Task: structure prediction
Amino acid sequence: MKLNTSRETLLKPLQTVAGVVERRQTLPILSNVLIAVSGGHLNMTATDLEVELIARTPVEGATDGETTVSARKLMDICRALPEGAAVEISESKGKLAVKSGRSRFSLSTLPVGDFPLVPKIEGATQFSAAAAQFRNTLARTQFAMAQQDVRYYLNGLLFEITSNQLRTVATDGHRLSLCDCPIEGKIAKPVQAIVPRKGILELQRLLGDGDERVAVTLSDNHIRIELGEAVFTSKLIDGKFPDYERVIPQGNMKRLVGDRETLRQALHRTSILSNEKYRGIRLKLGNGTITAIANNPELEEAEETVEVDFTGEAMEIGFNVNYVLDVLAVLTSQEVEMMFIDSNSSCLIQPRGEKDSRHVVMPMRL
Amino acid sequence: MPQFPNRIHQLPDHLANQIAAGEVVERPSSVVKELLENALDAGARQIEVDIEQGGVKLIRVRDDGCGIIKDDMPLALSRHATSKITQVEDLERVSTLGFRGEALPSIGSVSRLTLSSRTESDERGWRVQIEGSVPSTLEPQPHARGTTVEVRDLFYNTPARRKFLRAEKTEFNHVEEVVKRIALSRFDTAVRLQHNQKPVYALHPAGDLKQMEKRVADVCGAAFVEHALRIDFEATGLKLSGWIAQPTFSRSQADLQYFYVNGRMVRDKLVSHAVRQAYRDVLFHDRHPAFVLYFELDPALVDVNAHPTKHEVRFRESRMVHDFLFRALHNVLARTRPGSTPNPVAVSDIVIPTAANAAPEQQSTFVYSSPPSGAPAQVRENMASYASMFSAAQPAAELPRTSESPPLGYALAQLHGIFILAENANGLVLVDMHAAHERVTYERMKQAHAGEGIVSQPLLVPVTVRVSEREAALADEQRDLLRAAGIEVDRIGPETMVIRQLPALLRDADAEKLLRDVLSDLVVHGTSSRVMDQLNELFATMACHGSVRANRRLTLPEMNALLRDMEATERADQCNHGRPTWIQLGLGELDKLFLRGQ
Result:
C-alpha cells in the first residue's frame, strides 16, 4: 500500500472514526484503525466491538492495500504536521512509514486479518430520513437515556419504525422523552430496536449539520446508518423496552402554557440555590402565574414568578429541576405546554403547536 | 442366629454425670467458671483462686460467702440439686448466675473433689469428698465462714478428655480469662489468683469510680482505660454503663470485649451487631472495638437459659434492646472530639498531668454510690439511684472549658501542605488537614440531611423485583418502616414486588439490590439502616471530594478556623475511615526527645 496525499485528506476521516477507539484496551487490535486503499478510495475503520465507524475519502494515484496502525498515534502525527503539508504513507514488512517534508515516522502494524469487522447485515428493514430531522430527533431524546443502569435495556435509545415515521424514546426510569421523525421507505411491519448509549452519542457527533439524507439499515442485531462519506454500524441491545405508552399521562389535565425561554431562564436561576445533590425545586401554580421556589441545606432560598397562561385550580408540585431544564433546553418552539394531573402524578411537557415530541417528568416528594 | 435387640435401661448416675460433664466441663477454665459463679451466688466478698499446672493438678476456689449447711453438703454433690431456684416460675426471673444444679456433680464425676464449708451459725466446718460420684461421709474440718472447693486431678478417669488438654500455659490463659471476666463483673468482690503459688492478680474491692478504673486497668491494661470513654445511659428501664475505647484505640482481634447482661458475661449476636453499628463510621476498616459494658434490665425481659454455657441470651424485646444499645453507644462516640476526650492516640505511654483536658470532664463530677452491677436482684433499686445520678451528671458533660486557650490551641504553621502544626497548653498538636476537614464536612452533610428528612423520588418506570414469599410478606408488614426510609413498594404477586419510589439521593442506585439488602436486614436483625448506610456512604464520598486536599496552602486564619470547627464537630477525633485526625505531642514528650531535665 502506498499513498501520496495531503495532511487534511488523512486527518478528516481519522478524526471522524477515532472517537470510537477506547483509550484503554485489553485487545491491542482495538486501539488500531484499519486503513484500506482500493479503487481510488481510502477507507478508515475503527471499532470497539459495539460501534463501528467507516470513513471514506477519494484519493488519487494510490497503490491498493490495507493495514492497521494505532489510531491515536497516527492522528497525533497528522495533527502535529503543518497545515497543508504533503504526506506519503507506505507499508512494508509490518511497518507503516509516514513521511512529510523532512519528518519520518515508522509505525508498527498489526495483521489486517485480526481486525474485527461487522459482518454484512441481512434480512433488513431499510429507510431514509433527512439528516437535519434525524439529528433533531436524537437531540430531543438522547439526554433521557439511562447511564449504567442495571436495567441494561434503558442504557440506550429506542428506535420504533412504523410505515412512515421513526419514533425515538429514552427513559432512565424517572423521566421519559419521545420524538417522531418522518421517514421514507418500505416498512413491512413495525420494528423496535434499542441502540446503545455510546452509539447514539457517537452518531450525534457524526451527524454534523449537513443537509443530506441518511440511509438506515436495521437487522436483528445491528443498525447501519450511512451518511455522506461515513458509515456507522452499531450492535443493538437485546432486550424489551418498557411499554412507554403506558407512562405518558392522558385524559383530563390542567394545562399551562408559557414562554419557553422565559421559563427556562427563571428555573435556571432558581436552581442555583436548590439542593446540589437531588436538585429539588417546588413549583406553585396559581392563577396566571407559576412560582419556582428552591432551597438548600444551607437554608438559602430562591424564588421567581413567571406569568403564564394557566386557569386551573392552584396546586404545588416538586421536581428535580434538571429534568425540567433538560427538556426546556432541547425544545425549539416559542411556547411550551405543561400538563399536570396532581402533585403526585407525572407531568407532560410538549412544544406548543408541535405534536412530534413529548416529555414526561416524574415529580419529587419534597 | 437372630440378634436380640439391646435392652433399654436407666444409665447409672455416675455415667449420666460424666455425660453431663461433657457439656459443662470442657477444660480447667470451665471448672473455674462454675466455681467462681457459685462463689458469687453465695454472696462472697473475697474470692481466692489457686491453680496448679494450668488447673490440671489443682483448682482451689475459696470464698467467704454464706457457706453450705452441714446436712445439705452431700446433696449439693448430687445432680439437679440447687438452692438457687425452687419452682418453674423462678426460671422466668433467674437472678443468680447458676441455676441448673449440674456443676458440682459433673465436676465431681471427672475429678477428685473436696468440698469444705461452714455457715455463720455453725460452730465448726465440715468436709465431704467425692471421687467418681460416690460422696464420702462428712468429716469435721476447720474452716472460716464460706466454702472451699478443691478439684484435683481433673479428667483422671476420662483419658479422652485429658488427651485434648493443651499446654499448661494455654490452659492457664483460659483460666485467667475466666477470672478476668468474673473480676470485671463484680467490682465489690476482691479476687486473688495464684498460679503455681505465684500471685497473678490481687484485685481489691472497688468502691468508687477511680478504684473501678484501676481494676479495669489491671485487667484490660492501662492503655484501655486511658483511651476509654465512660458511658452511663439509662432509658425506659434499661441501663448501660461501662467503658468503651475510642475508635482510634481499636484491636485487630475481638479480644477486648466484655459485655455483661445483669452481671452475666455474654457474647451475643444482637449485642455485637448493635456495637458494630454504633462504631460504623468511626472505626478503621477491619478493626474491632474494645469495650467493657454492663447492661441492666428487668430479669423478666431476658432469657438466660438459651444456651448450655449461658453465653447467649434471648431478649424479649430484641429490637428495643438493639436500638437502646446503639443509641447509647452512638451518643458517646459522638463525643469523640478535641477537648472532650483524652488524647486520641497514644504517642507514648507518658501521661501528661494537665488538668485542662487530660481526662473526660464529666468524670470529675461523677459520684458513684454503688458498683455498676451489684446482685441483679437489686437492679430495680439501683436504677432509681442511677437515674438521679444520671440527671445530675448530664449538665457536667457540657461543662464550660476551664482553660483559656481552646483544646487544639492556635495554628503555628503548615507542614508540607499536609499537616497543621498548632500550639496548645500541653504542647504541640499535629492535625491531618484533609482527614480533619473531611470529618467536618461529612458531619455537616449528615446534619443538613437529617434536618431535611428523606426526599423521595417516585419512579416513572417502576422496578419489578422477584423476592421470596417470606420477604414479600415482610415488606408488606414493614411498609411504614420502608416508607420512612423513602422506599415505597407494592406487592403484585406472591413473590413479586414493584418498587415505586426511592430516596431521591439514591435514584441512581441499584434499586433491586437495595430492596433485597433492606429486606434481608429486616429478616436477620428486625431493623435496617441500609438506606442510611448508603446515604452516609454517598456523603462520605462527597465529603472526601469536597474537602481540602494535600498541598493546598492554608493561611493561619483558615487553619485556626479548621481547628475551631474540629472542636465543634462530633466524632472529630477520627476521619470518616477511622484514622486519627490529630495527635498531641506534649511538652514532656518533646523534652524527652531532647534529653532535657534528665
About this structure: The longest strand of chain A covers residues 51-58. The helical segments of chain A are 7-18, 71-80, 131-142, 197-207, 244-247, 260-271, 321-330. Chain A has three domains: 2-114, 125-245, 248-361. The mean pLDDT of chain A is 91.
